[in-house]
Amino acid sequence: MLHAMSAKQLEHRVSSGVFADDFREEPYWWTAASPVATGPSSETRLPGKAEVAIVGGGITGLVAGLYLARAGADVLILDAQNIGEGAARRNAGFVGRTLKRSVEWISKKEGRDHAVRVYRELDSALKGVKALVDAEGIDCYHMICGRLVSANSPAHFRSTVADLQSMKRNLGFDFSVIEKHEMHKELASDRYHGGAVIPDLGSIHPGLYHAGLVKKALEAGVRIHSHTVVRGIEGGDGLKHVRTNRGVLEARHVVIATNGYTTKDLTWHARRVIPFRGFVIATEVLPEATIDKVLPNRRTYLDTKMNIDFIRPAPDSNRILFGGMTGTNCETGTGLAAALHARMVTILPDLQDVRLSRAWTGHCAGTFDFMPHIGLRDGVHFALGYNFAGIPLGTHFGKLIAARILQRGNTGTVFDVENFPSVPLYRGSPWFLPLAMRYFDWQDRRIATHQ
Ligand SMILES: Cc1cc2nc3c(=O)[nH]c(=O)nc-3n(C[C@H](O)[C@H](O)[C@H](O)COP(=O)(O)OP(=O)(O)OC[C@H]3O[C@@H](n4cnc5c(N)ncnc54)[C@H](O)[C@@H]3O)c2cc1C
């Protein structure tokens, strides 16, 4: 069992050839879509003015910028890093309509109508990705491949099926039950106690999706400046002054789209998002027959734990991507990659002798209420806290913020709530995360042995 693996055993794994000759600590997606420096060199001062300044050049910032520029607005996107160095080109490319809070959970707390509205909007965000990809002709392997959710215990199997039944009853979302003895039709693993396939969920190549958005935004006239750190935003409801490491910019509208990378300069927002690390590995190129055996239907795969393990095939080569150990407090490093390899093999023993070609990490953003948030504070728009659903929600919120600034169309959303919670003394460094993750892991282990 992975948790019991000693430092010595790990060291042995590292030295015993888990890594392919071309192994790199870099997102697999960067092979096809490497992050880029965009705009004038970092010594150049900023242009003094823009109608809309967007902080963060991930999915949210680019989608907002694209729609605004198409409507004639003068838009400047500012990003502290190369464009594409955030989570947008580091994620796993699952396109779903899932949050950590189920329909039943939200119903108990906030009523069934609210829960149904949350999941309706998640569904429309899911469909919005396909609509955007199709409308813009972005070549990014968007596929409706279906998702297998595998149960970690018999009790989890029952509750997963009950949740999906509730979604079907209330929202019409389809699914099919996979009994324990049928699991090998879906996944070459004896680890799970049955599962369910949700047929209309999708996947994407996140690097190519984001690169496609950059291209479209630039063509629409958006100016994008990388290596520009926003240090503060001053001004009330009128003109704003955006202070950066390259001078001050005046803007009529400002959008914060920084999710898990929100710097502490953005004090109010940093106090409300909990950055935590996700980790992913990619195998070397495998024989087609291995993928056919291990992931015969080439879906996306995750389990029912709080701290999930997730699996998918690469869309553009015969590799398998595996992720987990979210929130572990370290840089990627070969030790962590070897630990993830060991974890992958406990689930998919056919991959025992398979080596790794990539390992990487990135920042996701949790929130204290496990919900994403969009809103306006002190005249500044924000969309943050995607809780692992940033591909559909970043796309959806980017579009919504553009519509709000343009004052066009229906701009209402169930995620626009008054209360975006923080906790006393929290300033954006989640010192409690290792403890919280240990608690979730303990709960997950308990669940795994529960009948
Ligand atoms: C390992 C991993 C796996 C994931 N898997 C999935 C998945 O399968 N499906 C899914 O839907 N989601 C997934 N996510 C989450 C998803 O990637 C994110 O929610 C989404 O990309 C974040 O939103 P974004 O693209 O708008 O911002 P990001 O791409 O995170 O960009 C934010 C940008 O803000 C910039 N920034 C921050 N502060 C400042 C500042 N002060 N000044 C200037 N710039 C600033 C940063 O430099 C950064 O580039 C995953 C995330 C990770 C890390």
Automatic annotation (TrEMBL):
GO MF annotation, one: oxidoreductase activity
Q: Does the keyword Zinc-finger apply?
A: no
Provide the coiled-coil residue spans: none
- SUPFAM superfamilies, per database record: FAD/NAD(P)-binding domain
* Short name of one Pfam family: DAO
Q: Which domain of life does this protein belong to?
A: Bacteria
Q: Give residue ranges for domain FAD dependent oxidoreductase.
A: 52-404
The alphabetical list of record keywords is: Oxidoreductase
Q: Does the keyword Methyltransferase apply?
A: no
Stated name of the protein: Gamma-Glu-putrescine oxidase
